[in-house]
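Sample 3 of the quickstart, ligand pyridoxal-5'-phosphate:
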Amino acid sequence: MAPSTNSDTSLDTSRNTVLFERARALIPGGVNSPVRAFKAVGGTPRFVQRAQGAYFWDADGKRYIDYIGSWGPMILGHGHPAVVEAVQKAVLEGFSYGAPTEREIELAEEIVKLVPSIEMLRLVSSGTEAGMSAIRLARGATGRSKIIKFEGCYHGHADALLVKAGSGLATFGNPTSAGVPPEVVQHTLVLEYNHIAQLEEAFSLHGSSTACLIIEPIAGNMNFVRASVPFMKRCRELCTQHGVLLVFDEVMTGFRVALGGAQSIYAKSIPGFKPDMTVLGKVIGGGMPLAAFGGTRAVMEQLAPLGPVYQAGTLSGNPVATACGLATLREISKPGFYEALGQRTRSLTDGLTQVATQAGVTFCADSEGGMFGFFLLDKLPQNYATVMTTDSPAFNRFFHAMLDKGVYYAPALYEAGFVSSAHTAADIETTVDAAAQFFAGR
Ligand SMILES: *Cc1c(COP(=O)(O)O)cnc(C)c1O
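Result:
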């Protein structure tokens, strides 16, 4: 396969390199969120100068077709006119008040209309904050301490969630980050995704002391892995049976895979299906810092100032962020939006699969709405361990070859990709052609 031309920084005098050096002097690793540093794939991160539609331009003026879209929020592409107009108008009215606004109600009304399992919600500023608060609320509402999560699912970087599986179902988790005391994760049980027998065993041991089960219904932080319908059905049944709250982390999938989120997709296969709580972020802010958690009225009324579970935020429900989110939700609510987005995304995964197969490269892919994953594997993985069997040097060569050709995929094999409504058929064709050239060794 073709060698990377971008990983050797010693000869590189590009502005990206200069900026990276400057950044590294002051910001740990030169970045404000780790995956941006290209640590997994090697090379110099691209510093973005500006973005428009499906593209962004780096500090050297090179254009890329953007398949990250800020890790999910930019479902309309960059700089959508209706969103820009709403934000410009909001900015003129003030940046932040620390007092309630009508726009927060409008956004809440919009979300409740689109996601029927949510009867009440609270707005916050990041997915991490939303997930952390949802878990506190679940514990407060049930009076129980334990939580269940799944290996490979990411729910933000709250202490209790930075955890990997312990040595058995009785031992609970081990921290995955320095700085997290073992006592803080001692109530977090980590299970294998899509493993029904293990799930049943865990509930029989710990069901009565567990507050919630939190899951990415379509996991986007181990590339793209769907929870199988039988697995999800069992999650719902066991939660109901044991009084455990089922928390859907739809920070990535919410308004991304379908207008009603991943839960609307499971509801098609499992009659009456809904989670007890939902965590949202990314798309609901349209690129601004905005997230939310919501659920049944009975649970949400446990939150301060009504109930005993404390939660707060200086910038929560920020007037500029809510304007951006509302304008985004109004655009994606238009008829036919997800059909078109889903088709466009599928044309990418189908195209990539076709050229890989023609070149004899082991490859498979999946997508839902504007979210996709592809694997250098012979079949779609069902859990984190299988995702991580990917030949990572091969992935890294693919990543850099595509980057050279002006296609920006996530710089790690365990991340999902995103297509926006601004991506054209020509963008997809350019991308597939670039992949075909790489697979053919050109
Ligand atoms: C991105 C993400 C988060 C964290 O959101 P931040 O806004 O980065 O804090 C939580 N859960 C899932 C599923 C995510 O994809």
